[in-house]
Amino acid sequence: MAKDFPTREENYAQWYNDLVIKADLAENSAVRGCMVIKPYGYAIWEKIQGTLDKMFKDTGHVNAYFPLFIPKSFFSREAQHVEGFAKECAVVTHYRLKKSPDGKGVVVDEDAKLDEELIIRPTSETIIWDTYRNWIQSYRDLPLLINQWANVVRWEMRTRLFLRTTEFLWQEGHTAHATSEEAIEETRKILDIYASFAENWMGIPVLKGTKSPNERFAGAVDTYCIEALMQDGKALQAGTSHFLGQNFAKAFDVKFLSKENKLEYVWATSWGVSTRLMGALIMAHSDDHGLVLPPKLAPTQVVIVPIYKKIEQLGEISEFALKIKKSLESKGITVKYDDRDTFKPGWKFSEYEFKGVPVRLAIGPRDLENQTVEVARRDTLEKEILQVTDIEKKIEHLLEQIQKKLYHKALSFRENNTHTVNTWEEFLDIIENKGGFALAHWDGTVETEEKIKEETKATIRTIPLDSKQENGFCIYSGKPSMQRVVFARAY
Amino acid sequence: MAKDFPTREENYAQWYNDLVIKADLAENSAVRGCMVIKPYGYAIWEKIQGTLDKMFKDTGHVNAYFPLFIPKSFFSREAQHVEGFAKECAVVTHYRLKKSPDGKGVVVDEDAKLDEELIIRPTSETIIWDTYRNWIQSYRDLPLLINQWANVVRWEMRTRLFLRTTEFLWQEGHTAHATSEEAIEETRKILDIYASFAENWMGIPVLKGTKSPNERFAGAVDTYCIEALMQDGKALQAGTSHFLGQNFAKAFDVKFLSKENKLEYVWATSWGVSTRLMGALIMAHSDDHGLVLPPKLAPTQVVIVPIYKKIEQLGEISEFALKIKKSLESKGITVKYDDRDTFKPGWKFSEYEFKGVPVRLAIGPRDLENQTVEVARRDTLEKEILQVTDIEKKIEHLLEQIQKKLYHKALSFRENNTHTVNTWEEFLDIIENKGGFALAHWDGTVETEEKIKEETKATIRTIPLDSKQENGFCIYSGKPSMQRVVFARAY
């Protein structure tokens, strides 16, 4: 194997952490809980960003930028929001340093204390709705469909690269509407965008549904989410879309004159995905040989490695390789030709395998003779010799196949790890021993949900949108229930 | 005029501020000194970002992301850097809020005090070089050509939208090299990229040169810059590229094993442009009718407005207009068709004029008959009637013409406002009465530069790269000098 790291079986958590670090995706920084996203990891994030950004714009959204700082008092305006967000956060109290009296270094200048502390945004509803008050007067100003790409900070005690970090990157959409119906429609539209992105780009099947009151966003009337299942049987929330009702409009006094000439509070949504998606992407497909990336999000889709004994052979091979590179690029495929003489082919093979490059082409002197190329695919580790005729079509097709295969593999995994359970014993067995999603009846109360969480660490991941109505009994309380919800332990 | 605001002549500062706000580019936020970049302004910034990002990538750079927070002690590592940057900055001292004892709102939890304060990055050399220490061991790891798009915070007392704000958006490149020569070459390469972007995209001619020691970046051996001249005769520094020598490598102990197997300190550069460029763009071309945007950076390059008396006419006009829109889009032109019935054509005309849309097409019933379209260009406010045959080629050509014209207009302005001065009296006259660039001899000392600044508020904007060697005498001290430098009052 390329790099010395544990298998998933041996130690899943360590496997993930080592993979992130050794594949040059990210690392811990000198600042506790904050990560450095390295160029290879960031290149994947840029693909995620670019794709989502286009999907948002294609549905009429525009980008803007709001301040990093939020005045402390803003948090107290929305009662539930302050409970959820104004706790573990970075607080700016001063705006100046001065020379330390001992001459060594700098100290905080106590004369430069802020009248009101500033909070580094953990999410931007408050500052944005404070701004919207001046932007919205009439129904003509609606809807307002705004998104922001930004960094946010939530002071986390236990952090894990990409999955939970003190600072993370994300997008947060904040829309304003004239009616409740339109806002709910927007919330659902975004949920569909997120699901489509997860499935068609990341190759990760997701459940779409709502959150139980316990898991709802602080300040939301309803939280929609997409939930994915990781290879260790734990769930990962990959994106949320909130219907905020008129809560923030009321908190920040945002009213509009309706077509009927009545002054009404504005309806709101907010929605976001973050660098957490990177964690999902890494965990969903990778194996004990390293990273596996879906072609649509791989910074390099194809790598070409020349194989030669004597340096004199390189010229001819390069000519052949560069012709192939060019024809692949004509199909929009991202190709890297690695002709570095400082590394052996074997080293390069395991390096690109470890970094999850979907397709590797190797070209040696015999390939020149035979007009062939050796094609290795990362997902199955299979190799075959292909004639170079129409190579661009063959590789294009192969990349599509890999993309599909990864999705279907993840889908099979989820199907095999989704269990319909009817008793508490079955439930415990799934949660404690097998992992995965447990579809179970629940009596709909916060108390039951909390007790189940206390006893098993499993939470309701989602109440699926497509779950059918059926009579049943809560696995915990035995009370009647009308539909199954999805339980799991989660990231 | 579209909006009630002063002419440049009446009050240039107010003209600028009103323009930014009334053209929906940005506004002041609830947080002192921080701005909200509105969707229209942000769309321009996205064009700037996208273009520069491609230029960086085409020259081998990659993006990454480093933490927002910098431990306070990091600033003290590089002696000059701490002088320049660790003063006016946002200091995070606590990581938790709690419910206020009186039950109203939240207060800082004094139990959650950080052992070491964290500074919101004013620039990232320190945290990045602390990271590079682990990334660089051998000459094989070099060069490292990394860029970051990020927000930074410098606590400014007097702020102006885009030009000087407490939080701003920027890119910061941080590269590491094996030799001094290579690092200097990188510094110059980036300077050329900045200059080319300013001239070919923003339509703003710039002077390329170095900074005097007084104006140098804190921690740099040499600072290169591009300087532009605004319509009020003040200079604006539009981008800087620093050769940092081994200063940061020494401060953070970043060494590499050279090809000759010797342990050496790494050579560094850093370079950046920010949302300040937006200020330059707005000021460089706009007029008393509002914003003027160069076509290459305009979010909407062409707007089409239908003119009709009866709503029944709209269908036919729309069909005609959408055909034109489609043919323009086939040339990669960004077109908006504004068929809103809630606004009159006259209102739309002045709105798009005010927002600087480069070309406006108006189409009425007579145009349908004659197969014509009325074309208005924003820069000259000229109108003409064109046959629709090959309209996409005509408009494409017109956009190119406008782009060039804006540059040449700005260039003429700069030429007319660049003065060669030989005496202190001439210098004072230019600085106090006329404005613009004053090319003058300077004795090369910090003292003289500071005295000139004290007496006139003019600073050395740059020592031009192409300035010829000539014998002369310092305008202030009368001491001998070998070349002229560029003085001006500046933003």
What can you tell me about this protein's structure?
Two copies of one chain form a homodimer. Chain A has helices at 12-22, 39-58, 72-75, 79-85, 125-135, 180-200, 247-251, 276-285, 314-329, 345-354, 365-370, 391-416, 424-434, 446-456; strands at residues 26-28, 35-37, 62-63, 69-71, 88-99, 106-108, 113-120, 144-153, 167-177, 207-210, 222-229, 235-245, 255-257, 263-265, 267-274, 302-306, 335-337, 359-363, 372-377, 383-387, 418-420, 437-441, 459-464, 472-473, 480-481, 484-488. Chain A is α+β, with helices and mostly antiparallel strands and 491 residues long. Chain A folds into three domains: 12-285, BirA Bifunctional Protein, domain 2; 300-397, 3-Layer(aba) Sandwich (Rossmann fold), CATH 3.40.50.800; 418-488, C-terminal domain of ProRS (Translation Initiation Factor IF3), CATH 3.30.110.30. Chains A and B meet through strand 2, helix 2, strand 3, strand 4 and helix 3 of A and strand 2, helix 2, strand 3, strand 4 and helix 3 of B.
Write the layout of secondary structure elements.
Two copies of one chain form a homodimer.
Chain A: H1 12-22, E1 26-28, E2 35-37, H2 39-58, E3 62-63, E4 69-71, H3 72-75, H4 79-85, E5 88-99, E6 106-108, E7 113-120, H5 125-135, E8 144-153, E9 167-177, H6 180-200, E10 207-210, E11 222-229, E12 235-245, H7 247-251, E13 255-257, E14 263-265, E15 267-274, H8 276-285, E16 302-306, H9 314-329, E17 335-337, H10 345-354, E18 359-363, H11 365-370, E19 372-377, E20 383-387, H12 391-416, E21 418-420, H13 424-434, E22 437-441, H14 446-456, E23 459-464, E24 472-473, E25 480-481, E26 484-488
Parallel strand pairs in A: 3-8, 16-17, 16-18, 21-22
Antiparallel strand pairs in A: 1-2, 4-7, 5-6, 5-7, 8-9, 9-15, 10-11, 10-23, 11-12, 12-15, 13-14, 18-19, 19-20, 22-26, 23-26, 24-25
Helix pairs in contact in A: 2-6, 9-12
